[in-house]
Structure formats: structure tokens, C-alpha cells
Amino acid sequence: MYSQGLMGVEETPGGEQDLLDRFQARIDAGEKIEPNDEMPEAYRKTLIRQMSQHAHSEIVGVYPEANWVTRAPTLRRKLQAMAKIQDEFGHGLYIYSAAETLGVSREEMVGQLLSGKAKYSSVFNYPTLNWADLAVIGWLGDGAAIMNQIPLCRCSYGPYARAMVLVCKEESFHQRQGYEAMVALMNGSPEQKAMGQDAVNRWWWPIMMMFGPHDADSPNTETGVKWKIKNFTNDELRQKFIKATVPQAKLIGIEIPDPDLRFNEETGDWEHGEIDWDEFWSVVKGQGPCNHDRITARRKAHAEGAWVLEAAQAYAAKQAARNAA
Ligand SMILES: [Fe+2]
Ligand SMILES: [Fe+2]
């Protein structure tokens, strides 16, 4: 579902100034960088880290939703949830494939996820307690993902940018189906309205954290922007999200659980309450309410699906042998 403002840009060793200058000139001219092009090692590494985190997030992101497919209130909602989950797995596969063009294998990336070395978006380490959580994840979680991902369609790395075009179209459906489910709840009984508000109360802050630390605390943002890996800073994206979300919340009678949220007429920005960064970092470091469950579920799925991979490899080997004969 998302990349998060965690990616760093590593130092490029000295003696490569010419390469850096040539590369920057291509970026500044708006050219796309393709897999076999010359690129600074730091650019390649930064992209591998960002894209693998992104792909992992797409895959792990379905776990909070999976529990509610069999409990969806109607057949239509169940179909929506299943379609969305299928999309998210597809996004993961696209992005793993795009990352492989940088010289890292999918096995290596998946291995890093399973060992706990690689990160994925912190938001998926929170529990989904009832159906309203699914509506809120679509409306706000995928809504935040769209803010992060639309600029990636213009990212300087060609395979990533092209993969994101389809991903964003599907994310738009995810956001709409979530909002539609939310509208239904908010037009329902007092109990349903309370469920909707309660889910927003629990998810608002984890979703605000999805954009990553404030710009002042995100020293790598500058290089990411310079190389057009990122086209907006974390705070700019958070701001866009609040701007888009506040009127939608108002329309359906949802109160944003932030007493300090207010529009500043002079700056044209929304000011918001302090984000609990201690909570954010503790979740990123593995101490969130569901980190353990998510990784355990992922490891179990990997182990239980091993026979599929083996069968596919055996089949491919048999086909290759036949073709050779
Ligand atoms: Fe996605
Ligand atoms: Fe999505």
C-alpha cells in the first residue's frame, strides 16, 4: 500500500563527481533513468530500500484486512474487500519486479522481510477491531497512500514510475470503496455512527504518522527530492492529505480526533496537534501492537506456500528440458 518517509540516501564515495554531475543533469532535464543506465550507487541503494519497503507494505498491508473478508456485512462489501486485497498483492508483485531491475533478487528482499531486517509501513502494526476499521483503512489509509504514491508516477526511475500508474488507479478505487462504506455507516443507526467515529479515533494518528517524520527531522529528504525519488517532502504530503480529508469528514459527520487541528488563513495550511513520535519509532522498531502477529503470519504463509514455488520450478525445469529436446 505505501512507502513511508523512512528511506535514507546514502553517501556516494568520493571520486565520482563526474558521474554525479552527468546523472544530475539527466535528472534535471526530466529524463527517466532505466535499469542499464549509469547511476550513482547511492541512488540504486536508496531505490532498492524504498521500493522493497513499499512492496513489503503492499503485502503485509492485507493482513489487517484479511480477518474481515469472511465477516463483511454484505456480499457486495465482501467482493470489494476481496478485490482490494487482490489488487494489493498485485502491487507488491509489480514493485518487487521493478526493484529486481536494480540488481536485487526477490528472494533476497523477501528474506529481509521475513528476518525482520526490512521495514514496512508502521500503520499495519495496528489491529482491526471491527468492520468500521476496514472502511477507515480504505478511506484514510489508502487515501494517505494515494498522496504518497501519485508523485511516484513522476519518480525519476522508469520502472518504478511506470508501475505506479496502474497502482494509483487501483488505490483510487480502494479509497472510494472505503469512503462509500464509511458513508453507509454514518447514515446508519447511532451504534453504526459510533463505530465509524471510534474507528477514525483509533486510526487517525497512526495514519498521520504514515508520512514519516517532520522535514526538519528527515535529513535525507533533500537528496531524495534532488534526485526526484521524492517529489514532495513528508510534511507537504501530510498537509495535502489533511486538506483533502477534512471536507470529506465534515460531509459525513466525522470529527477528526485532533482538538488542535485548525486552518491558518495566513499560511493557507492546516495546523495539527503534536504527533507522538515516540509511539511511531517504537512501532517502527517492532514494538507496535501487531508487529509480532504480522511477521508470524507472513512467515507461516511463506512456509506453507513453499510447495507452490517448488512445483512451479519443477514445471519450468520440465518445460525447459522438453524445449531443449
Ligand atoms: Fe496498494
Ligand atoms: Fe490500496
TrEMBL record:
<dbReference type="Pfam" id="PF05138">
    <property type="entry name" value="PaaA_PaaC"/>
</dbReference>
<dbReference type="InterPro" id="IPR052703">
    <property type="entry name" value="Aromatic_CoA_ox/epox"/>
</dbReference>
<dbReference type="GO" id="GO:0010124">
    <property type="term" value="P:phenylacetate catabolic process"/>
</dbReference>
<dbReference type="InterPro" id="IPR009078">
    <property type="entry name" value="Ferritin-like_SF"/>
</dbReference>
<protein>
    <recommendedName>
        <fullName>Phenylacetyl-CoA 1,2-epoxidase</fullName>
    </recommendedName>
</protein>
<dbReference type="GO" id="GO:0005829">
    <property type="term" value="C:cytosol"/>
</dbReference>
<dbReference type="InterPro" id="IPR011881">
    <property type="entry name" value="PaaA"/>
</dbReference>
<dbReference type="InterPro" id="IPR007814">
    <property type="entry name" value="PaaA_PaaC"/>
</dbReference>
<dbReference type="InterPro" id="IPR012347">
    <property type="entry name" value="Ferritin-like"/>
</dbReference>
<dbReference type="GO" id="GO:0097266">
    <property type="term" value="F:phenylacetyl-CoA 1,2-epoxidase activity"/>
</dbReference>
